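Q: What would this chain look like folded?
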Amino acid sequence: MDEREKTNWGRVLTPVIGLAVLVICIGIGLALAGPAFAELKVRIPTLPRDENFRFVIAGGISLVLLLVAGMLYAVVAPKPEQTVSEAVLDKEKKERLAEELRMKKMKRDMKNKMRQRNRE
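A: My prediction, written as structure tokens:
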């Protein structure tokens, strides 16, 4: 099988895994929102007593969990292989410098020819 034909399932399934992590984080946030809301009611008497505030807490918990999951993914995510090596970069740099020198020499030669024609 050719290298290009191999399917990298880790990269293909990344959006599906991300969606699953999102759903899991929302579920954990909703599960933890009840006890957190009850504890906050006791600790902060001026907190709104509305049950809809529980969803705000669930959203905050879910957001924190998503941020942690994102940071973990950033650490362990598969990095693309470097296709350019130092040897290739050095070779390209030398070719570019050689081309610049060739162009300078061509300009010098052209100026010398123009000077000789103007003298005649």
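The radius of gyration is 32 Å.
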